Amino acid sequence: QKEVEQNSGPLSVPEGAIASLNCTYSDRGSQSFFWYRQYSGKSPELIMSIYSNGDKEDGRFTAQLNKASQYVSLLIRDSQPSDSATYLCAVIRASGSRLTFGEGTQLTVNP
Amino acid sequence: DTAVSQTPKYLVTQMGNDKSIKCEQNLGHDTMYWYKQDSKKFLKIMFSYNNKELIINETVPNRFSPKSPDKAHLNLHINSLELGDSAVYFCASSPLLTRNTGELFFGEGSRLTVL
Q1: Shortest CB distance from A99 goes to which of B97, B100, B109?
Q2: C-alpha to C-alpha distances, A79 to A16, A26, A108, B45, B97, nearest whole angstrom
Q3: Which residues of A are less than 8 Å from B106 in CB distance?
Q4: Do A49 and B43 touch (CB under 8 A)?
Q5: Looking at residue A28, what DSSP letter applies?
Q6: pLDDT tens readout for residues B17-75
């Protein structure tokens, strides 16, 4: 079982729609969860972090965490073509020494 | 000023050659990393150093040897290159990871192509 799993996609949504990206993790003791965005040919950059069950909103982005289900998601409201990128879910495990990434979900927002 | 800089950005080389990638960070972070990203975008940790001390060494062939002369620099040397080594190698830095800090600052990546 992979430590962090994501649907590789690609996920395609029309401009203005809500994009929903999902991630599951295997280590129940994991403490901290992150979403990174990576544009084609560029390096990953952190866009959201979440540590407690529930929702965390930042502008058009909402991260959701459910530790009982070992599930993290990222919602992007009012999707824009500039949101087209690969979104990487990342987890710090209970040991706390490393950030483990999922394989990423490629999102395309169509004008 | 670039926070995390890697050189070179592109390497094209023949199988069996040896190559090095250099990385420097000016963020004052204690921890540096090498990640490998394959063609499917999977970002996999290879090594991590904290204050020049190796703290993570994943299952990586011993043809790969990291070196950290000081906490601002982490270099990667690869011997006897193989076709499967073709990938983008990212250097990153961060404060020491804790429960509440998971932000890695990545360099621009070094794309290695082995022919």
Answers
A1: B97
A2: 5, 29, 9, 31, 31
A3: 43-45
A4: no
A5: T
A6: 999 999 999 999 999 999 999 988 889 999 999 888 888 888 789 999 999 999 999 99
